[in-house]
Every structure is written in structure tokens, then in C-alpha cells.
Design goal:
157 residues; Ubiquitin-like (UB roll); 5 helices; 15% strand
């Protein structure tokens, strides 16, 4: 089937198998390997991208279902080589160890902070509960998100 979508501001059009998952389209066809394949069962969140303004797990969506969609991946966050405030937060607050969950965690945070620019710690933990990290224990991830929220609101502390 022929599909067309915008990924990170660039228009793409390809013929794909109807059963191709969006995560595999992004990684294998578009060669944007920042979106990770973790569990293939939607449990870990490593494949999270923004589709039409909302965080989705790309392993649960067929590429044909994303026809005409606007997709944003981790590769689309930095601007002119400068990290997005959420990426900077993960860097500054050591919100990663092995880094495997980080792209999905960051993309989930994009959606979280869009909908709640000043979340409490409890709201952050609830907001990222669909993303698993096997390394950090989450405390520094929470601190990274708090950092990003402050940066994005202009209330650095």
C-alpha cells in the first residue's frame, strides 16, 4: 500500500506491506533509529513517538494507520544542533544510564509537558508509567522532567 506522512517536518511517501508496524517503518525504511524496539508488546514504551500531537507506542500502530499523519521522533527534537529542554534535562539531571528507554521516555515527556506544563512529582510518575527503565530507579528521570518543565516555563531554579 502507498502511504504518505510527515516525519520531523519532512514529507515521505513509500509503498509498504500492510502489516508493517510504524516502528519498523521509522527505523528500517526511514533509517531513524532513535526510536527503539523494546518489547513488541506495548509494555516498555521504548518506541514512543508523537503522532498528530499525542504520544503513541509505534509498535502498536501499523504504518498504514499513520497515513497522512504528522510524526515526531527523537531525531526531530533538537533545533540547529541545540538540545530540546527535555533532552537537556535528561543530560543535566542524569536521567539516563544505558539510554535504551531514553528516546521513548523523552517523547512521552513531550506529550506530558504539553498537556501539563507544571506537573507535580506524582503527576510525572503517573505520566511516564507506560515507559519502563531497567537502570535508573526513575528518581533522576523525574528530576530531569522537573528541570525541563522549569526550563520550558522560564522559571529556572
Amino acid at each position: 500500500m502507498k502511504i504518505s506522512m510527515t516525519v520531523n517536518g519532512k514529507q515521505y511517501e513509500h509503498d509498504v506491506e500492510p502489516r508493517l508496524l510504524l516502528v519498523h517503518y521509522i527505523r528500517d525504511v526511514l533509517q531513524l533509529t532513535g526510536t527503539h524496539v523494546g518489547c513488541d508488546t506495548s509494555q516498555c514504551g521504548a518506541c514512543t513517538v508523537i503522532m498528530d500531537g499525542a504520544a503513541v507506542k509505534a509498535c502498536t500502530i501499523l504504518a498504514v494507520q499513520a497515513d497522512a499523519a504528522q510524526i515526531e521522533t527523537i531525531e526531530g527534537l533538537a533545533t540547529n544542533g541545540e538540545l530540546h529542554p527535555i533532552q537537556r534535562g535528561f543530560w543535566e539531571e542524569h536521567g539516563l544510564q544505558c539510554g535504551f528507554c531514553t528516546p521513548g521516555m523523552i517523547m512521552t515527556t513531550v506529550d506530558l509537558l504539553k498537556n501539563n506544563p507544571a506537573p507535580s512529582e506524582e503527576e510525572i510518575r503517573k505520566g511516564i508509567e507506560g515507559n519502563l527503565c531497567r537502570c535508573t530507579g526513575y528518581q533522576n528521570i523525574v528530576k530531569a522532567i522537573q528541570y525541563a518543565a522549569r526550563e520550558m516555563s522560564g522559571t529556572r531554579a
